[in-house]
Amino acid sequence: MQTKFLKALWGMEGTYRDMFNRIQAAGFDGVETPMPEADQENEFKELLEEFKFDFIPQIFTGGADHAASFAEQVERAVSFKPLFVNSHSARDHMTFEQQVSFFEQALAVERATGLAVGHETHRQRAMFTPWTTARLLEALPELKITADFSHWTCVCESHLEDNRADIELAISRTLHIHARVGYAEGPQVPDPSAPEYAYEVSLFEGWWKEMIQSRAAQGHAVSTVVPEFGPPGYMHTLPHTNQPVADLWEVNDWIYKRFRENVKNW
């Protein structure tokens, strides 16, 4: 099975062309980012074609009608010819019945557009814990996730030792991987190369390995991975100066290169 690595534009600076040049030089297969504003849409599409990049658009549901917000954004995404869509979906405060209704409508949009969607396991969203996600996945067998368990370690303030059954279900429904290492007190360790976070790195790599193996066992030809360490305020900063404690590009590059090497043996 092929593993494709895409680069998030989150935290990068410069024009789209500047960013695409750096991303291509680093060996990535494409980009993940919110869709551009209308006045930059044509340029963005032309650059995707020029650089032969795969694209995963990020969408964010909101407003009075999350289902309508979702449908509008997915329908717009079709014209970008993406691999699939990554969605921050619904809200944590919704009732289970409201969440199920949202995801039923989301699945109908998937079927109508032919565009797959990974719903991200993200704080503030419906899939903010292992158990809320498991209930939704059990209720809706077609539902797929973008797995970012760094949010779960933060929300649960643990290494998820008590949530193994929920994690196994989530792994089996993983469409896409956000490769960021969290810990019990936050969604992002300051620097994954630091020895004091070796346990967390090993833990997350174990989950990522299972995700890759699960997709292969299900007969998928491709897995997709985005190293997704973020800038301040995800990244820690020094008091008084607000200077980041690590270089964002180097942190993501470390995860990217390590994942790319590990996956050869998975």
Descriptors:
eight-stranded parallel beta barrel; 42% helix; globular; alpha/beta
Order of strands across the main sheet: 1-2-3-4-5-6-7-8
End-to-end Cα distance: 10 Å
Q: State the secondary-structure class.
A: alpha/beta
Give the number of DSSP strands.
8
Strand residues, percent: 15-25%
Flag low-confidence runs.
none
How many helix segments? 9
Q: What is the mean predicted local confidence, pLDDT? A: 98
Helical content class? 40-55%
Radius of gyration: 18 Å
**Biggest sheet layout:** 8 strands, parallel, barrel
| Tertiary shape | globular
The secondary-structure element order is EHEHEHEHEHEHHEHEH
If you had to describe this structure to a student in words, what would you say it looks like?
This protein is an alpha/beta fold and 266 residues long. It contains nine helices and eight strands. The protein has helices at residues 16-25, 41-51, 66-77, 96-113, 130-139, 150-156, 164-172, 198-217, 248-262, and strands spanning 2-8, 30-34, 54-60, 85-88, 117-120, 145-147, 174-179, 222-227. Strands 1-2-3-4-5-6-7-8 form an eight-stranded parallel beta barrel, surrounded by five helices. Helix 1 links the parallel strand 1 and strand 2. Helix 3 runs parallel beside helix 4 (96-113). It starts with a strand and ends with a helix. The model has no long low-confidence stretch (mean pLDDT 98).
